[in-house]
Each structure stands twice: as C-alpha cells, then as structure tokens.
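Below is how a single chain appears once it has passed through the pipeline. First comes the sequence as given, then the structure the pipeline wrote out for it. We keep one example in the README because the format questions we get most often are answered faster by looking than by reading.
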Amino acid sequence: MGYTVSPSGRLNLPESEDAAAVAAIRAALAGRGEWYEPDAFPSNRTLADLAEAARASIVRDGDWIEFGYDDEGDPKWSDRATAFYVAIAPFVRSGTVQIEGEDGAHWAYTYANGQLTQQGWNGWDGSVEPFGEYVDRP
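Resulting structure:
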C-alpha cells in the first residue's frame, strides 16, 4: 500500500554543507512525530544514508548530489519525503529534482540560492506547494 514514486535529478549541494544538511533533515524528520527517531539510526550521518526518507537513492558527485529510483527500499511517498526536500533547501545552490508518481503525476522541486519552489501537482497529497492544501488536479 502507498504511493510509489521515482525521483530523478541533480542538486548543487556543496560537500562542505553535508553535515549541516544532514542535521536539518534529521531534525525535520524527528519533528514529523512519526516513526523516525534520529538516535535509533546511527548510520544516518550522510545524505546517502538518509535517501530512504527522500524515497530515492542518492549519489554524491563532487558538489552535486544525484537522485535516482530507490530500487532497494520502499519508494512510497509520505510527509517524511516532503520534509527531506524542504529541509535541504537552505543548503542547495541550484538544481531540480523531478518526481514521477505511480499514476503518471509529475511534479518537481526547483532550488535556487537556498529557496525551494514546487512545480506541478503532487500526486500523493494533491498540493501545488510543499505541505500545501489539496487542490483538484489541473
């Protein structure tokens, strides 16, 4: 059960910002009040370790991180995935991550100078902005 997604894209997130980005993600996930407990997962010290929360695989290439389909995990969208993408915004200089939902919905998160903008309709929650209200599909 759930809404399967396939992310792809690249973000310019300098490697020197990894520790701060990881701390922000861990805090955002803990703040969701769901199953995530930061101290219960000591391996969650890198962006690649936290990729499961983004429902993606993440590979670092210099100052870029590349997102791909999580074929080893459970790539079902949730508020935790949204929290991941919002939490990294202050550390990202530029780039876009596209999300394709199991029903063909497409949306993207575009980053520029620490800001995040959502393009498209999120097929999981029906929002047109992160953590936004449901709107009818355009």
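The CA atoms of residues 56 and 70 lie 5 Å apart.

See the next section for the split statistics.
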